[in-house]
Design brief:
heterodimer, A: 195 residues, mainly alpha, two-stranded antiparallel sheet, 10 helices, 2% strand, B: 76 residues, elongated
Chain lengths: 195, 76
C-alpha cells in the first residue's frame, strides 16, 4: 500500500514537471478557441486533469505537447464548442484568393512588407486570428504559433493531412488579407502597395 | 510563368513549413536561387509566418492558474 502511494506521487511529480510548462501554450490555444478567459482557463484545467488520468497511456518519448493539444482539442469540441460566437472573417471557397505578394505591389522593395507588418501590433494579429472561422483558426495556430508539423496537426484535429494543408492555405490567405486591409485602412498602404 | 515557377507556387507552403523531403526541396531550391520573384514570394511568406508566431505566442501562464491545476491534481 505504502509503495502504491509513493508511486502515485512520483507519477504526479513527473507529470507536473513535464506537462505544466506547457500550460501557457495550451492556454493560448484555449483562448483562441473560446475567446473567453474564464472558459479558456477551465478548459486548460480540465485538459490537465484528463491528461493525468490517462498518463499511463502516454507513450514516453513521444510528443507530449501534441498529446496534450489533442486532449485539449477533443475536450473543446465535445464540451465547449457550441458556446462560442460566430467568427466574422469569411474564408472564400473559390480560387479568388488573396495574394500578399501582388498586394504589396513593389515586391522588389524589401521594405514594402516591413511597413505593413511593422504597423501591426500583437493585438491586431491576435484578433485577426480570432476572427477566422474555427477550423482555419486552429490550423493556423497549431502550425504558425505552436510549430506543429502537418502530421501532428492532422492527429490533433483528427482530419486527413490534405485537409490540414487546405485549411492552412486558405486560413493564411484570409489572415493575410484581413491584416493587409487593416494596414490599408490605417493608411500604411496606398492603393498601389505599401508606402 | 515558367514550369518551375508554377511548381514552387504550388508547393510554397510545403517549402515554407519544411514538409518536403530533402531531395524535393533541393530540386526547388535550385530554382528559388535563380528566380527572384519566387524567392521573394517565399521570403514574404516566411516573414508573415514569423510575424504571426512572434505576435501570437502566449506569455507565461498566470501563476494562479498553474496553482489551481496543481491543487486539482492533488485532490484527484
Amino acid at each position: 500500500m505504502k509503495e502504491q502511494i509513493s508511486e502515485t506521487s512520483q507519477d504526479l511529480e513527473s507529470f507536473e514537471d513535464q506537462a505544466l510548462p506547457l500550460a501557457s501554450a495550451l492556454l493560448g490555444a484555449a483562448l483562441s478557441m473560446t475567446s473567453n478567459r474564464a472558459e479558456a482557463e477551465d478548459l486548460v484545467q480540465e485538459t490537465f486533469l484528463r491528461a493525468f488520468r490517462s498518463w499511463d497511456s502516454f507513450e514516453k518519448g513521444t510528443n507530449l505537447k501534441a498529446w496534450l493539444f489533442r486532449i485539449l482539442t477533443n475536450l473543446y469540441i465535445t464540451s465547449y464548442r457550441k458556446r462560442r460566437r460566430e467568427p466574422t472573417i469569411v474564408v472564400p471557397e473559390d480560387d479568388s484568393e488573396f495574394d500578399l505578394y501582388q498586394a504589396l505591389g513593389r515586391p522588389e522593395d524589401n521594405s514594402a512588407e516591413a511597413v505593413v507588418m511593422d504597423s501591426l501590433v500583437d493585438e491586431d494579429v491576435k484578433s485577426a486570428l480570432t476572427e477566422l472561422p474555427e477550423d482555419f483558426r486552429l490550423t493556423v495556430l497549431l502550425a504558425d504559433v505552436e510549430g506543429f508539423s502537418y502530421k501532428e496537426i492532422a492527429e490533433i484535429m483528427n482530419v486527413p493531412i490534405g485537409t490540414v494543408m487546405s485549411r492552412l492555405h486558405r486560413g493564411r490567405k484570409a489572415l493575410q488579407k484581413s491584416l493587409f486591409e487593416l494596414a490599408q485602412q490605417r493608411g500604411f498602404v496606398s492603393r498601389d502597395g505599401a508606402r | 510563368m515558367k514550369r518551375d515557377c508554377r511548381e514552387v507556387l504550388e508547393k510554397l507552403y510545403l517549402i515554407l513549413d519544411r514538409e518536403l523531403s530533402e531531395a524535393e526541396f533541393n530540386k526547388l531550391k535550385t530554382h528559388l536561387d535563380d528566380c527572384p520573384p519566387c524567392f521573394e514570394r517565399l521570403r514574404i511568406e516566411e516573414r508573415f509566418k514569423e510575424m504571426v508566431h512572434t505576435k501570437c505566442t502566449p506569455g507565461t501562464a498566470p501563476p494562479d492558474l498553474v496553482d489551481k491545476i496543481r491543487r486539482r491534481l492533488r485532490e484527484f
